[in-house]
Write a structure and sequence with these properties.
The chain has six helices and seven strands. The chain is of the alpha/beta class. It has two domains: about 150 residues, Rossmann fold (3-Layer(aba) Sandwich); about 35 residues, no CATH class. The longest helix is centred in the N-terminal third of the chain and has 14 residues.
């Protein structure tokens, strides 16, 4: 099985080392891990580089049998938007989807912390931001569409609390996802 390995680790200076570690874990379980930075950019066709990169990544996802997405909050209280897109894309293709996060704090609490004093009480219905937008309060680890999509795709969200200095390199939750995907092969 080819597994698309989505996550913001592509932005790390040592992304190649993270990719290799993830691919080694996949291989040990009889899976082929496909890391986004391994995706060739299609030959120039006068489209900007970012368009060609998107096209290559979409083609790569179409060629994979499942996805494991790192949904650890990235640059804010929620998961990386590119990773969220990839998860939704694979869900739309009907592929099995699994996710993990290295932060156990719940989405609502992280959002409230990010907003600080800009969050205010909205009567009995909860809290809102400065623009009057309700703050999601389902006691989930991220937006309900992410966790709901994982569940609907036969997967789950593996949650591990990891110290900040190891947040992008700890593969405990990733391993749980790989083990679950490997069981699908049987």
């Amino acid at each position: 099985m080819r597994i698309y390995l989505a996550g913001p680790e592509v932005f790390l200076a040592d992304s190649a080392a993270i990719a290799a570690a993830k691919q080694d874990i996949c291989a040990a379980h009889g899976l082929l891990g496909v890391f986004p930075t391994d995706t060739p950019t299609p030959a120039a066709d006068n489209a900007p580089e970012w368009v060609r990169l998107y096209q290559g990544l979409e083609a790569e996802m179409r060629g994979c049998d499942a996805i494991i997405a790192n949904l650890t909050p990235f640059r804010g209280p929620s998961a990386d938007p590119g990773t969220v897109f990839e998860l939704g894309f694979m869900r739309g293709l009907g592929r099995p989807a699994f996710g993990y996060t290295n932060m156990a704090a719940r989405f609502g609490a992280r959002t409230m912390a990010a907003l600080g004093p800009a969050a205010r009480r909205r009567g009995a219905s909860g809290w809102e931001d400065a623009e009057g937008m309700l703050i999601e309060a389902f006691d989930l680890h991220d937006n309900l569409m992410l966790e709901g999509g994982l569940q609907a795709a036969g997967g789950f969200l593996a949650v591990t609390e990891v110290p900040a200095e190891r947040r992008w390199r700890d593969l405990t939750g990733f391993l749980r996802c790989v083990e679950a995907v490997a069981r699908l092969k049987r």
